[in-house]
Backbone:
């Protein structure tokens, strides 16, 4: 325990060993000007203060009320001093605080301060509240200053336009060409900087408008104006939902991850036989021998200039759905196949139904969910899978040895294996059969659906995912909108879950991918729910790929399991009875999927459809891959125009739209 004092007037947070030593030199101080204050779920009642110079304080309050009180005061102080620093008003004392915290007396002198005791050990120092007239004066000064900012911005935009025109007017070859790397970098970064400043100006205008509105109202007895903080693209929850896109999406969603069917071609034939599902012969399926390893995308010089040229045309926050990306960043498989890799541990998936109680089943689901993401990611590769075309399908299955399927909590066999990739026995009588089908059901927006079932275990999962991607300067964000539902027929339980967002970082050097955001798993029937948080790496320090989870029984508000670790490394689970378990995801055995040879696949099945692009990429022939990809895109556009002319909407083969989502046409719950 340490004794903290917040001096609102100086904008300094300082701490002492105890209250008695508060008149001595503080043990530590932190300037709050421009600081960011956010709650943390690392431990109860925790908040984190990130100062503008990179220092960080992690603080824990006595209870939720005190935590919220401190967050509000710290944010108010940080905002007040950030504004103070950005305005050339001679004395901050004349303005003092623009907020009236509870219990503060309106003091006539600027030095008047109020010490407030919270739960015995907290002292907050706050200055007096300024009059409404002073507030109006400050507001008019602020808007006047913003007018100057807008003028300067328009001047700079004009200069940047001239710069771009001058660069583009240069010859395409010679000692100083329009494609010179340094000039392309200058063009890209100047555009990105201007876009970023434009966004900042908009945020400033919005927050000033809000401040003005607040001052026009009568301040209530609890007139604390908590600064909501500008939503940056990195912290903004790229709104999401739905299942396993990221299984593999983890890293396969690549820096160019823009699974928007637009750029990779779609819709190859009107397909009048949609109602009749084609027969997929399981006997034709063979164990997949495809090596999913990808070379690192350490961007080569000639490739970097292409990326720079592309970036120079993008705007911050821009939706990338219709942006065509260079072929060399493509991964050698379709997004639909990537969803199948979410099932790389089918033994753990089937073990969910083996749980003896509702508590054990949701814990098994969380354990499976957390271990599912690493397999789609091979090494540190950040490449983009093919955007499925409309009507594209992917079929596969797994033979899962029955002795491998048991409640995961008591199952030591699956957690560690000397041989990480095993082909388990083919004897059908000793194996469960798990079948998977995925289909691209929509082009704009790009929506993928998949369905997976095991008849013997009476369980299946249905999911629909809409991928949205956004350009964020030197990184790209992809959110997964939609949801998945796991059905356990034997227990009459349905588990609804969502998916995290993916972020591709460092797109100009060696791109890498991280997951971020909060996902939920809920079972309405049993009252159990889980929250899984994928933490993005902070700007300063911090670990990458961190994940935390909590399983709760809502009727009793009891936490029955907690987990923490890295989604692609070690995960530690702690149960309510005190037991713990560690899982090393890198050592979990992978059961290879079974898939029919390309010769026996239909024309719209993923591997058949993309075979020429894949082969060209394997040979390193980027030009040929680009040409094959372009043909698919052109075919797709032509057929889309044809459908528009005939006003015949596309009808998917395996899924039907229901409300906001999509459902498999012949799910297990209908047949059982």
Residues:
């Amino acid at each position: 325990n340490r004794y903290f004092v917040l001096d609102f007037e100086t904008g300094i947070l300082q701490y002492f060993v105890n209250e008695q030593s508060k008149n001595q030199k503080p043990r530590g101080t932190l300037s709050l000007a421009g600081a960011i204050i956010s709650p943390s779920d690392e431990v109860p009642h925790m908040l984190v203060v990130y100062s503008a110079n990179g220092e960080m304080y992690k603080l824990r309050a006595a209870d939720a009320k005190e935590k919220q009180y401190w967050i509000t005061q710290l944010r108010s102080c940080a905002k007040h001093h950030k504004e103070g620093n950005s305005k050339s008003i001679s004395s901050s004392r004349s303005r003092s605080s623009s907020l009236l915290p509870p219990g503060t007396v309106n003091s006539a002198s600027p030095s008047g301060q109020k010490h407030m005791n919270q739960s015995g050990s907290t002292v907050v120092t706050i200055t007096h509240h300024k009059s409404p007239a002073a507030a109006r004066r400050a507001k008019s000064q602020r808007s006047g200053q913003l007018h100057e900012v807008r003028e300067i911005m328009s001047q700079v935009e004009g200069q940047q336009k001239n710069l771009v025109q001058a660069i583009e007017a240069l010859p395409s070859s010679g000692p100083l060409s329009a494609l010179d790397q340094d000039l392309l970098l200058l063009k890209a970064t100047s555009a990105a900087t201007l876009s970023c400043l434009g966004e900042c100006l908009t945020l400033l205008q919005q927050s000033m408008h809000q401040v003005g509105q607040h001052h026009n109202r009568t301040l209530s007895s609890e007139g604390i104006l908590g600064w909501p903080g500008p939503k940056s693209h990195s912290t903004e929850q790229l709104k999401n939902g739905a299942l396993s896109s990221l299984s593999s999406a983890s890293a396969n969603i690549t820096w160019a991850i823009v699974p928007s069917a637009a750029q990779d071609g779609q819709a190859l034939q009107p397909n009048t036989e949609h109602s009749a599902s084609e027969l997929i012969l399981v006997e034709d399926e063979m164990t997949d021998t495809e090596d999913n390893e990808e070379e690192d995308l350490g961007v080569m010089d000639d490739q970097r200039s292409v990326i720079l040229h592309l970036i120079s045309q993008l705007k911050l926050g821009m939706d990338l759905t219709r942006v065509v990306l260079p072929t060399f960043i493509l991964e050698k498989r379709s997004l639909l196949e990537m969803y199948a890799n979410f099932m790389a541990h089918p033994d753990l998936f089937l073990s969910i139904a083996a749980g003896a109680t509702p508590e054990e089943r949701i814990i098994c689901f969380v354990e499976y969910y957390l271990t599912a993401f690493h397999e789609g990611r091979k090494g540190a590769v950040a490449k983009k899978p093919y955007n499925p075309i409309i009507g594209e399908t992917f079929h596969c299955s797994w033979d899962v040895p029955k002795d491998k399927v048991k409640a995961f909590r008591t199952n030591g066999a699956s957690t560690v294996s000397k041989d990480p990739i095993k082909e388990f026995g083919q004897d059908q009588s000793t194996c469960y059969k798990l079948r998977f089908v995925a289909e691209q059901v929509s082009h704009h927006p790009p929506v993928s659906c998949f369905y997976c079932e095991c008849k013997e275990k009476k369980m299946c999962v249905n999911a629909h995912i809409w991928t949205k991607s956004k350009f964020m300067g030197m990184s790209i964000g992809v959110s997964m909108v939609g949801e998945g539902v796991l059905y356990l027929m034997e227990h009459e339980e349905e588990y609804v879950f969502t998916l995290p967002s993916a972020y591709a970082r460092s797109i100009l050097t060696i791109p890498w991918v991280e997951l971020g955001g909060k996902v939920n798993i809920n079972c309405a029937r049993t009252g159990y729910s889980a929250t899984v948080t994928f933490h993005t790496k902070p700007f300063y320090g911090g670990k990458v790929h961190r994940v935390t989870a909590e399983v709760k029984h809502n009727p009793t508000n009891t936490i029955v399991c907690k987990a923490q670790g890295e989604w692609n490394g070690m995960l530690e689970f702690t149960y309510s009875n005190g037991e713990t378990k560690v899982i090393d995801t890198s050592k979990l055995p992978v059961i290879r999927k079974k898939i029919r040879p390309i010769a026996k696949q239909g024309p719209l099945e993923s591997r058949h459809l993309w075979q020429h692009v894949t082969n060209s990429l394997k040979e390193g022939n980027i030009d040929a891959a680009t040409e094959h990809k372009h043909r698919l895109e052109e075919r797709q556009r032509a057929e889309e125009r044809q459908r528009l002319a005939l006003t015949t909407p596309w009808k998917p083969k395996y899924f039907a739209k229901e409300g906001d989502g999509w459902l498999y046409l012949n799910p297990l719950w209908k047949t059982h």
Q: What stands out?
A: Confidence is low (pLDDT under 50) at residues 88-135, 217-278, 410-426. DSSP finds 13 helices and 29 strands in the chain. Residues 132-168 form the longest helix (37 residues). The two ends are 59 Å apart (CA to CA).
